[in-house]
Amino acid sequence: EVFPQDSADPATMTGKVPLFSPGSAVSSALPGYVALCLALQVHRLASAQFTVTGPDRPVTASLGGEAVLSCHLSPRISAENMAVGWLRSQDSEVVHLYRDGQDQYGEQMLEYRRRTELLRDEITDGRVFLRIRDVRPSDDGQYKCFFQSSVFYKDALLELQVSGLGSDPDISVEGHHDGGIRVVCRSSGWNSQPEAQWRDLQGQILPSASEDISQEANGLFQTEIAILITEESNQKVSCCVRNPQLNQERESAISI
Asked: What is the pTM of this model?
């Protein structure tokens, strides 16, 4: 099994070899070199234990750009002879796998084919980086980074936030309607459902006449929000569309 359950319990790991106390009848009957070999084996297993650490905050990347996810061992030991991998944490499907000294693509998810690269310049120090090219909306979410030696396994969770900052709001005047002028604001290319608002010159939110959010064929979202401008209302307004997850926004204004 490539991806075992977490077996970080030291008692579990060292239990794989017999332990002999110096005062035991068994150890006293063993030749000195056998006892020494057993002691070295136990020490090797104990020293092979490690922890895995990822970024302490979400990694952000822009749609169509690159994301670099880091992960490292503590203490700093070489991972050249370990299995190193990145999984989607929800279903444990393989994003990228390194094993037996080379990348393994047979188990990789189709949507990551030819888009990932494991950067191994610092692997002898127990530090690796996964580069994801051509970032997509579906790349957003949690990942699991794991290291697996011959006797020990440990992983860490991290999060990638895809910054789907959509297009600048496009404002158009659609003519008279219900005693006012109907103005419509449209924006597309957002990786999550955006929030759209009309505001006056002071930044106060104005009531909208209608609002519609839909998902495009490529998985991105578009929004359309309308306002009715009357003689009594403010005649210079702005349309603001924002990504609530990343607190990023785009804004356009119009004067009627």
From this structure: 0.58
